[in-house]
Task: inverse folding
């Protein structure tokens, strides 16, 4: 994990040296909440140990970003806190004004190998009846409404930070 963070610091320094004025660094989202991981709990809970590793990674990355900002004249580097935005949406099942409500947020809509059929044309996947009831399309990827919900949580702070001089 430390090697990844060290390389990220090197890469961010290189990007800054090229003259880029504002650099947004996304924190990892709670990987323990992915359907491919939460499947073991019948999609009831996020895997805490996996999320703990993500928290450690994100904390290390935020430390690097703070260090880099101290070395530059302006706050050139900013983090996008996907971790807390995802958790907010998942814990509230998206139940915030203007955000879709997800009945089963940890369960994917497309189970199996999405879009794949065998040599006889038989589907190797199943689809949920209501895609809007899930946050995730498959074992890894949020549906469009899922991303809209995450952005609704990030929204104003993200926009304000990006346009700050």
Result:
């Amino acid at each position: 994990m430390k090697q990844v963070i060290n390389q990220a610091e090197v890469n961010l320094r290189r990007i800054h040296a090229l003259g880029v004025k504002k650099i947004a660094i996304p924190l990892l989202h709670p990987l323990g909440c992915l359907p491919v991981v939460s499947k073991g709990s019948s999609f009831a809970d996020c895997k805490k140990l996996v999320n703990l590793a993500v928290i450690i990674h994100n904390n290390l990355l935020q430390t690097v970003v703070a260090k880099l900002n101290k070395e530059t004249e302006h706050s050139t580097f900013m983090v996008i806190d996907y971790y807390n935005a995802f958790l907010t949406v998942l814990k509230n099942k998206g139940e915030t004004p203007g955000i879709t409500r997800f009945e089963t947020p940890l369960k994917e809509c497309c189970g199996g190998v999405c879009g794949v059929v065998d040599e006889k044309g038989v589907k190797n996947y199943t689809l949920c009846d209501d895609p809007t009831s899930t946050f995730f399309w498959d074992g890894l990827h949020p549906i469009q409404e899922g991303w809209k919900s995450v952005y609704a949580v990030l929204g104003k702070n993200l926009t304000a930070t990006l346009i700050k001089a």
Q: What stands out?
A: The beta strands are 23-26, 77-80, 110-117, 123-127. Residues 2-163 form one domain.
